[in-house]
UniProtKB/TrEMBL annotation:
PANTHER family: ALDEHYDE DEHYDROGENASE. Keywords: Oxidoreductase. Its EC number is 1.2.1.9. It comes from the Eukaryota. This is NADP-dependent glyceraldehyde-3-phosphate dehydrogenase. The keyword Oxidoreductase applies. Residues 23-248 form the Aldehyde dehydrogenase domain.
Length: 249
């Protein structure tokens, strides 16, 4: 699992004797020289996403702990059960109060925490609008150390020289894996006008091969994680068609 590999590499880097916590020697990377001082910053407020609950959350949480910070983690409303085992692990291995968990709707629970001014690090993956709104709640936002992953919009490009069979398969995989609910999913495709008529049937053929069902049935398409997601998607389709788009599948 890449999450465990990342954590292992992070621990190895923290133990690297060539990078002491306080060094008077200059470290050069990419032509830039600097003195490196590794030290805790304070309290991290960590908001992980529901769609990649482990990798995206612990990629910021674990390094923060290794540097001596404490963490307050917002458990996603959808997919929060995935963190129950790690809650037990943190409770048994770390001093009391090192990692705390908050549940509930983010719009209700996060602003009061930011307003205390006791958050030193803000780690968030989601929309830039939500991130901006939360940062403004902090009484001293200029002093926040911020790690954001916002509004990923990925483009699939099919050129006039592409192998259309390969391109169609990759575009379907890229746009539908995890039901398309991942930061790296293809959100939009641009196909060269000279091959678009030949590409669309191949794309639809690959799309038709996908099986729908429940996750434990080893299928490619599964139910949406939230009750109102279907209506939301239908609303997007309606908006697109009203603006001139054509539904092909």
């Amino acid at each position: 699992d890449r999450t465990m590999e990342y954590i292992g590499a992070t621990i190895a880097a923290a133990r690297d004797e060539k990078l002491p916590f306080q060094s008077r020697q200059l470290v050069c990377e990419g032509g830039v020289a600097a003195r490196v001082r590794r030290a805790p910053i304070g309290v991290m407020l960590n908001l992980g996403p529901f769609n990649y609950p482990f990798n995206e959350t612990y990629a910021t949480l674990i390094p923060a702990l290794l540097m001596g910070n404490s963490v307050c983690m917002k458990v996603p409303t959808t997919g929060g059960l995935a963190h129950f085992l790690t809650m037990d692990a943190f409770a048994s291995c770390l001093p009391k109060g090192t990692v705390g968990f908050v549940s509930g709707k983010g719009r209700l629970t996060m602003p009061p925490l930011m307003q205390t001014g006791k958050v030193d690090i803000f780690a968030f993956i989601g929309s830039s609008k939500a991130a901006d709104a939360l940062i403004k709640q902090h009484p001293a936002p200029h002093r926040l150390t911020i790690y954001l992953g916002c509004d990923a919009k990925n483009l699939g490009i099919v050129t006039e020289h592409a192998d259309l069979s390969v391109a169609a398969k990759e575009c379907v995989t890229g746009s539908t894996t995890y039901n398309g609910q991942r930061c790296t999913a293809i959100k939009l495709m641009m196909v060269h006008k000279s091959v678009v008529e030949a590409f669309v049937p191949k794309f639809l053929e690959e799309l038709g091969k996908l099986k729908a069902g429940l996750p434990w049935d080893k299928v490619e398409l599964t139910p949406m994680p939230e009750a109102n997601k279907s209506e939301y998607i239908e609303g997007l389709m309606k908006d697109a068609t009203e603006r001139g788009a054509k539904v092909i599948a």
